[in-house]
Amino acid sequence: xxxxxxxxxxxxxxxxxxxxxxxxxxxxxxxxxxxxxxxxxxxxxxxxxxxxxxxxxxxxxxxxxxxxxxxxxxxxxxxxxxxxxxxxxxxxxxxxxxxxxxxxxxxxxxxxxxxxxxxxxxxxxxxxxxxxxxxxxxxxxxxxxxxxxxxxxxxxxxxxxxxxxxxxxxxxxxxxxxxxxxxxxxxxxxxxxxxxxxxxxxxxxxxxxxxxxxxxxxxxxxxxxxxxxxxxxxxxxxxxxxxxxxxxxxxxxxxxxxxxxxxxxxxxxxxxxxxxxxxxxxxxxxxxxxxxxxxxxxxxxxxxxxxxxxxxxxxxxxxxxxxxxxxxxxxxxxxxxxxxxxxxxxxxxxxxxxxxxxxxxxxxxxxxxxxxxxxxxxxxxxxxxxxxxxxxxxxxxxxxxxxxxxxxxxxxxxxxxxxxxxxxxxxxxxxxxxxxxxxxxxxxxxxxxxxxxxxxxxxxxxxxxxxxxxxxxxx
Length: 475
Description:
It is a single chain. By secondary structure, the protein is of the alpha+beta class. Helix content is 27%, strand content 23%. It contains 14 helices and 22 strands. The strands form 5 sheets. An 8-stranded antiparallel β-sheet has the order 2-1-14-13-12-11-10-9, with helices on both faces. Strands 15-16-17-18-19-20-21-22 form an 8-stranded antiparallel beta barrel. A two-stranded antiparallel ribbon has the order 3-6.
């Protein structure tokens, strides 16, 4: 079965044009398969092996929830404690929700905020502390605890709880409480450590994030490499399949590793159990729930506990089937690919003898059909004179932003990084934000006029999650 899976994995990696990946399988507490595929960097010939370090993205969330589980074991807090009782400065937009927000809510993806609200704050230069302060300005998208919405920002508060009761940073706790005891010697959570690793994978993206676009290597000095590290407790860990299989063994053994207990079965098990409905169809399909840094999905014949992770240049998945004692890790070095998800389902289908499906082909077809960029208008309406758009615009989340006109062009400067983003005319008062540092990824900025014809509002699409990209003109 492993030979068949290996052949399929190699074929699927080529279909997704992924430069390199590594795969490990854990069965009944032992690593029964581990192998590297492809190369660390596109155009190179340095092969991936089982010790190659990849960014693992949001699979980092389970590390944070496990650290919180350790705090529960030590009696520092309880899952149902109110966050404000431990972090008095914690605030969200609604005072009642602030008062009711429990520790477990920080990791259960049911905050009431829109999916990926505050996600762009680190891209424009805000740090962890500033993000935690700014979340209070985001208006809710749904009622508290009623809808699933995936966010990174609440995990910053979960990490802050750990830091408060240990007197150590989140990064130090990872090293001392998890990496060290598990022997995860190649794992880290800082950009400098990732860069300096002797056996490390490159980071790759597609031009325009187009599923069929050319692939390029992200340079080490790219100004947005820090994004995932600002959101560290939600996604900054770098690791290998050798190390991640050790992490997986801890969870499959209910908190014990090689005779040493790190977390109680009750506390680590609590992170694996459903908290929030993601998708629960009455007929057909699988039922998905978010846990605490993990997902729980019904499958054939048993449910899968899993989580994927995506960074600007990598994609990952880690999963296990508790009832069968089998688990899988897939690390890859291309962003926005569904290769790890396809391999996960193919692996369990093969292992359990399910009806065969070519998940790679199916997922790739959907990805390609959903890609592409909007077409430029054939006869665009002219803009106003560019100086009419100049000025300072503001909202509570991003603060002041500046629109400037020079040499018949507009730019908008946002956040502490002060990077001027060019605005290219598209149609009427709509401008394209080409985001050159993102290799031409296309978004839009929309100026809105008032009754007197003057510009009053600017809406920037890539910031407008939960209406957070609406800026009012100040001057």
